[in-house]
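Posting for a labmate who doesn't have an account.
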Amino acid sequence: MNPQTILVYDGTFDGFLCCVFTVYDQKITDPIIRKRSQTNNQLFTITEDIITKKQQAIRVWNGFKKKTTSNEQRGFFKAFLSEIKGVENTLLNYMKSIFIKTSRNAIDFSNKDILKISQVARMVEREKHRMEAFVRFQLIKDSLYVSTVAPDFNVLPLIIHHFKDRYADQKWLIFDTTRKYGIYYDLNSVEIVTFDNVSEIDPKTIKGHYCNQEIDFQKLWTTYYNNVNIKARKNTKLHVQHLPKRYWKYLTEKM
């Protein structure tokens, strides 16, 4: 029995593409791609640690782009950001089916991997839109607008353009408390940030740094929200349908 090869990578998109490069370069017939943070409980396997190399990633992605449309490329990236367990192997199979295509013909949804990627990409897209709608900023004393979120999927890379355009005149930080990183805009560009001490960006800690203007605004908004509601027409079921409870923790009026 030939041992199965497990390719372990750093969790980045470039790292995943380097795994794909290794599969083709070493002609690995039955690989499993896994993040370094995940444990391996399988017996009779060979584990290979993949080093992320930008040139290898570019080479694989350029080859993929030649065979796909921009919509397919965006869907592929969104599926990767889902972080669903085992999605890397579905993406690898999807890439294999794309690489053997002779032209950019219609997407074959009868292929189970292509169908799965399409479905997952739509799920990630819905979460992206919800984050764009439900992110709420709080102004702290450093003239910085801060928001903490915990999306189901890793959608921060997808919402950068939206917030950079919409809030171009103010400095802001959106921090993903689940994945322990954020996106920070300094009025010029957006960069990825992390904190040595995650408690610095905890919502309770941020609350202690509110400026007076923010406190007054939250009181005003809560008063307005409570007064415009018509209690006689309250429809909790419909309300939760349009605004799921898991997003309430972001909203000032629900705090």
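Reply:
Got it, the structure tokens are right above this. Strands lie at 4-9, 31-35, 45-49, 138-139, 145-149, 172-176, 181-185, 190-193.
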